Amino acid sequence: MSTPHILIQKAYITVQRGPDIEAFASAIEPLTIHSVADQVQAFLHPDPARFTSEPGSGIVYDPLTGLMWAQKETDELEWDAAEKACRDCRTGGYSDWRMPTRHELLTILDLERNNPALPSIFETHGEYVWTSTQTAWTKDKAGSSRSFFYVYMYSGHVFSYYASGRLRARPVRRAAPASQ
To answer: Is 17 a member of any domain?
Structure first.
């Protein structure tokens, strides 16, 4: 007796937020109960073999999300300088690097590991890594009174910090559509 599969022909998700959700939604179509469970499992417990890197390139590619990551983080910088350092990154000859969103940064965590909670293909020298995601309670503020989310890379926890704080950042760029 075979296991029944349910195929959802069309799924529409309307969200008031930016492209993070759209990128994730495009990664899970067509939907089956098993495919969704497999993809959620892949995000929560990434297989270290999922990530690839050309030796000496300084780049890590994730075929599940279609994101390309800088293997190393920036130095510790205030948020504005860290965001600029990500934009100015030219690793691999690419010029479209940026600071990752909170959701993007969480996709590289391996919560089966700690200290750091990252697959060993990534180099890390800092405990805390900025994201581009600003906290909702400081969206109308400017300068150093703004705060942004960061990820504690040793455990995978997410916190917020004022933009004047000094943390590292890991540049990211979209390399391909997310895998099916």
So the answer is: no
